Amino acid sequence: MVTVDRPTAQEDKVQRAPRARMTGTQRRHQLIEVARGLFAERGFEGTSIEEIAQRAGVSKPVVYEHFGGKEGLYAVVVDREMETLLEMVTSSLTKNRSRYRVQQVALALLTYMEDRTEGFQILVRGTPTSGDSGRYSSLLTDAISQVEHLLASDFQRRDRDPALAPLYAQALVGMVTATAQWWLDVREPSKEVVAAHLVNLCWNGLMHLELDPHLVGPNEPQDDATSES
Fold first, then answer.
1. pTM of the entire predicted model
2. Which residues span the membrane (predicted)?
3. What domains lie within the chain, and their CATH numbers?
């Protein structure tokens, strides 16, 4: 006769212990993270409330209770990503000296894309209504505007035409963002090396490239004709 070991009373109690319920804030955060992964993977149209709920282990009414629907949840996900990226880029644009500032902008974008790849994919994929990357384009427009302002002041101090600042701002931001999107696919060399070479091109031009560019510290000599921004 085969003897079957029965669980002890203590083991049975452990096995049947209910999982701790999440607070409303914890549940909301969980749903946002689950939705962020699905939106990045499948886009807005390819993601359903049912699938979000299933992956989060809740019923559909719970998702509706927190966000009102898929559009509301998507908007929250996008707003959080925009806030994160904008804070990183703006901080880099408004501090430190000129070359170091350009370097930190490139690093901020690369770091965001590396750490929050899903969020970046959502931003560039487009909104459910317009079908274009309106939020990301808006962010780039803000960044270009800030760079334009900085360059105009720099050009004026150096007796150069400040009317050319918009052209250079478009070129600089465009070069950094295009290179960053390429790097997201290949992930090599390291983001620090990519940032150093981007600044090398921005700062020195093709005719005066450094042989071995490296990232500079905020107080290192930077061959900056304007010295301080």
1. 0.68
2. none
3. 79-208 (1.10.357.10)
